[in-house]
Amino acid sequence: MELHLDPQTLDWAQRTARRFEHKLQAVRLRSAEKLPARAIDGVHDDKGDGAPRNPDDGLCWWTNGFWAGMLWQAGHATGDRTYGQIARYTERRLDQALQSYLGLHHDVGFMFLPSAVADYRLTGDADARRRGLHAAILLAGRFNPAGYIRAWNDIPGSESDTRGWAIIDCMFNIPLLYWAGEETRDPRFTRIATTHADTVLRHFVRPDGSVRHIVEFDPETGAFVRDYGGQGYARGSSWTRGQGWGLYGFVMSYKHTGAVRYLAAAQKIGEYVLAHLSPDGRMPVDFCQPAQPDYRDDIAAAVIACGLIELAGLVPGKAGVYLPPALVLLHHLDETACWDEGQDGYLCNCSADYHGTLHNVNYTYGDYYFYEALLKLTGQELYLW
Ligand code: GLY
Question: Is 155's pLDDT higher than 90?
């Protein structure tokens, strides 16, 4: 990726990345044996604490790869090997998730790309490769030949029939299949990934460039049945994190395949996002939400910033279109982040979803994408996706 930053922007990005790492040196000591999903009152929780949970919580929780991903990125950027040692410990704990199998669903991409596959890419470790391929086989096994990857398993206690459900977030899981295809030279993986991406292109991306969160297909025929608002405000609205998964996800499909239809899709979603960004960089949970309550989502801001920075480097002559809004988002995150080294999280204004109760909270995967965006700017990113 060719990005030419002005000296002032580069200086800010470098200082902010170093500030992130300086705090991480303290956080990693406190959280070395945890699998953090978020910081609660400044203290990382631990998804591996053994507490009784639903099958897809605990060790199978979908964000459990991001702590390792943050550590591998920091190890790569700083040359400090302690980061990799903690990341490897996290990765080994996730073996139990692979063994349990029943709690895993399509988010094995989010779980194993930033942990095991990152390890393999950096160190060539044979066990890390095996874990990555195991996860890729599980993701490939969720493919319905009617044309999509099934998102979730049956939801306990729910009437919903999720056999036909696919969600936009999966655009960020399929890079695991691209990696497995590249690693094994077996085209099955890539074919499944592109078939799914083409289905998303047809049925999730609306004419105005916004994307749906959940689409239900007939699991026998693959015919479109209906869509759902999912974690956004309402059916037909535009959940901002979903716009980010679509934008950055199609960028990844383009980078792995070279198919220009995916780059065009990312640009189309990008145009929609740019038209709806707030000039001050504050990110709502949904671009269609009412003015009040002012629910926000820093994770969406970080993911969208990553996607826009990628587009700035990929689309000739468009850096001036995509880079400035990404910088507005990142400066806002910098200004509102928690830089107190005594507290474990960074981003403070994340939301799980619009209608849930978790607003103005921290999430580790948001912290991860914030850091990844900074490293894209400094040219120190470890390519994980
Ligand atoms: N993948 C679910 C989320 O972004 O919350």
Answer: no
The ligand 1 atom nearest the CA atom of 245: 4
Residue nearest to atom 5 of ligand 1 (CA): 352
- State which ligand 1 atom lies nearest to the alpha carbon of 242: 4
For the chain, which domains are there? 7-378 (1.50.10.10)
Mean of pLDDT values over 88-109: 96
Rounded to whole angstroms, how far apart are CA atoms 44 and 30?
Answer: 9
Q: Report the C-alpha gap between 248 and 269 in whole angstroms.
A: 9
Q: Is the pLDDT at 369 greater than 70, yes or no? A: yes
> What is the 8-class DSSP label of residue 233?
S
Catalytic site residue from 45, 56, 169, 344: 169
Whether 107 is catalytic: yes
Cβ–ligand 1 contact at 241 (below 6 Å): yes
Nearest CA to ligand 1 atom 1: 169
Q: 287-312, pLDDT tens digit by residue?
A: 999 999 999 999 999 999 999 999 99
Q: From the CA of 195, how far away is ligand 1's center (Å)?
A: 22
| Cβ–ligand 1 contact at 169 (below 6 Å) | yes
In the prediction, which pLDDT does 2 show?
73
Distances (CA, A) of 244 to 49, 64, 69, 75, 118: 31, 20, 19, 26, 22
| 353 CA closest ligand 1 atom index | 5
Kindly report whether the global pTM for this prediction surpasses the value 0.85.
yes
Mean pLDDT, residues 313-327: 97
> Quick check: 218 pLDDT over 80?
yes
Classify strands 165-167 and 214-217 as parallel, antiparallel or unpaired: antiparallel
Q: Is the pLDDT score of 1 beyond 60?
A: no
With a 6 A CB cut-off, is 296 part of the ligand 1 pocket? no
121 Cβ inside 6 Å of ligand 1: no
Burial 89-118 (b: 16+ CB within 10 A, else e): ebbebbeebbeeeebbbbbbbbbbbbbbbb
